[in-house]
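FAQ: What does a ligand-bound record look like?

Like this one, built around glutamine:
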Amino acid sequence: MHNKTISELSRLLQTRKISATELAKLFLARIAQSDLNAFLHVDEALTLAQAADADANIQYQDFGPLTGIPIAHKDIFVTQGWRSTAGSKMLENYVSPFDATAVIKLRDAGTVTLGKLNCDEFAMGSSNENSFFGAVKNPWDKAAIPGGSSGGSAAAVAARLAPGATGTDTGGSIRQPAALCGITGIKPTYGRVSRYGMIAYASSLDQGGPMAKTAEDCAILLNAMVGFDPRDATSLQRAEEDFTQNIDAPLNGLRIGVPKEYFGEGLAPDVEHAVCAAITEYEKLGAKIVEISLPNTALSIPVYYVIAPAEASSNLSRFDGVRYGFRAKEYGDLQDMYRKTRAQGFGEEVQRRILVGTYVLSHGYYDAYYLQAQRIRRLIAQDFQQAFTQCDVIMGPVTPTVAWNIGDKADDPVANYLGDIYTLSTNLAGLPGMSIPCGFGIGDVNARRPVGLQLTGNYFDEARLLNIAHQFQLATDWHQRTPEGV
Ligand code: GLN
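The answer part, i.e. the structure of the complex:
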């Protein structure tokens, strides 16, 4: 049962072969037995109450594709019942008085919340090791990181602790952990999913999206998540769209752009091998390959690591020991209370980014760093528009390597930043991007570690991306593989 997709579970629920309560209990039991540290907060009574609601609705024939489907939320989305910590000591015991818009929308669609998922502190990281609540283990190999910052979400779906989950992606945090855990994830066009109630990291880059086993499941979840929200100033108004509608369209004549910059130095041969094999598979499905260039790719790292910390330093100023959560126990005057609270409440990486952010925004450095980064950001977005005159979709690796061992890069922030090379530019440009499982590494250790294929589309091309991903999943079985013992 736990290996079934959302669309399969939906049919079983609607034909009353299983109840929402039984399904919720089954996944709660799996969560209780798991040693991955993927879940941070579980509340059986709350979950079962939601499941009972779903069962009542099904009984009255009042259901949709997500009624009774258990899912879990990255702990960046605030929830009224479960604590909302963003993986930080700063919010260790914080309970939100309201639900995030994405959470409300998924609830309105009938989903049952299983709990909250571990993540890097304030979504800053690529390995989930920056969580105050400890690292998450990769279900494929418990010595490995699951990726980050949505590491708990990816690990939970891969270990079948939940059929689907939410994630957020500021610079790759949906796509990268999806790739390293062998699942499917989509980051929509900036502005499609409301940021209201998503604890802010870098507001011009943050975007929520679904993570699940298949593209079809992601489409079903995304249908419920998108939509204009007056409470998010950058939310977009778009006509309603069913992301499952064209999922079966054939790929004949599809033009796949393959950026030469994504296949240079730094890309591990085993990842390259799996990604190239996947692109060859697409040729068999009728697609044509076009070599393209995204010349400013390498600059996306310095640009992102100026802009994201700049925005973070502003967003995180609200954690002052007064308005939310943690306050230092002992302090002198007010200034000292702020200092001690922030020094004790934030982890090392978060403090590093606040320092970088305030530095690049400060008088005398603003023009040299922040403004310059904004200019290059524009060039990066233009590169994509140029590329999309030649192709319909861009494909390449999500990450330069498969998952590394827990602890290996924990003391080396720059090594972590460099690993974001293929994902950052999508966010800088505001484009939609996906990761789908396309193989494994090579060698004794890496053969158990998944590889992801990245699909990047033009603005609002989510439906097309999901169609392209779904066709691959009809032709291959990488998305059906499970870690040993799952
Ligand atoms: N790894 C990137 C960072 O540390 C991206 C994180 C994200 O997308 N939230 O900022």
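Follow-up question: can I read anything off the structure? Yes, for example: Residues 440 and 449 are 5 Å apart (CA to CA).
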